[in-house]
């Protein structure tokens, strides 16, 4: 069976429902098993993922497979704000393609490095980042989730 073609493109308004679904899936699969009940309730009640998509989608880049949004990436300056890949598409190189696209844009904008964060419990993401050249630079308390997490800052030199 031939490998599906991954198309990386700017997000469009019509992608908003799919982008919300991507964030919902990654919240449920990655974060929900680790956050406190209070943090999970706050995330759902305040529609944090949905509001993030509605406010920031014009800056998103998506990966599309067979017309479906399979993942997204969002960066500002040299900082990658978010990378999410739908569970059914993980392990297909989508995260690598999105990261490579963002890194090229970041370098073209004149930055010497790309930075991103994840939490210590998210070993799958940390392994992906390490495999593509990111190195750990710092650790600090995660104040976003109020769940006692430790955030890891990762940096990749570009160029």
Describe the structure.
With 159 residues, the chain is an alpha+beta fold. 36% of the residues lie in helices and 31% in strands. It has a domain at 6-114: 3-Layer(aba) Sandwich (Aminopeptidase). It has helices at 16-31, 37-45, 48-56, 94-108, 123-131, and strands at residues 6-10, 60-65, 68-76, 79-85, 113-119, 135-141, 150-157. The protein has a 7-stranded mixed sheet. The protein is globular and about 40 Å long. The model has no long low-confidence stretch (mean pLDDT 94).
Keywords:
36% helix; 5 helices; alpha+beta; 31% strand; 159 residues; globular; Aminopeptidase
Secondary-structure blueprint of this entry?
Layout: E1 6-10, H1 16-31, H2 37-45, H3 48-56, E2 60-65, E3 68-76, E4 79-85, H4 94-108, E5 113-119, H5 123-131, E6 135-141, E7 150-157
Helix pairs in contact: 1-3
**Helical stretch count?**
5
Please, what is the oligomeric state?
A: single chain
SSE succession: EHHHEEEHEHEE
Low-confidence runs: none
Note the main sheet: 7 strands, mixed
State the CATH superfamily name of the domain at 6-114. Gcn5-related N-acetyltransferase (GNAT)
Tell me the CATH topology of the domain at 6-114. Answer: Aminopeptidase
Helix proportion of residues, in percent?
25-40%
Strand portion, in percent? 25-35%
The shape is: globular
- Write down the CATH class of the domain at 6-114: Alpha Beta
Q: Could you give the count of β-strands?
A: 7
Radius of gyration: 15 Å
Mean pLDDT: 94
> What structural category arises from helix and sheet content?
alpha+beta
Q: Which CATH architecture of the domain at 6-114 would you pick?
A: 3-Layer(aba) Sandwich
The strands making up the biggest β-sheet line up spatially as 1-2-3-4-5-7-6
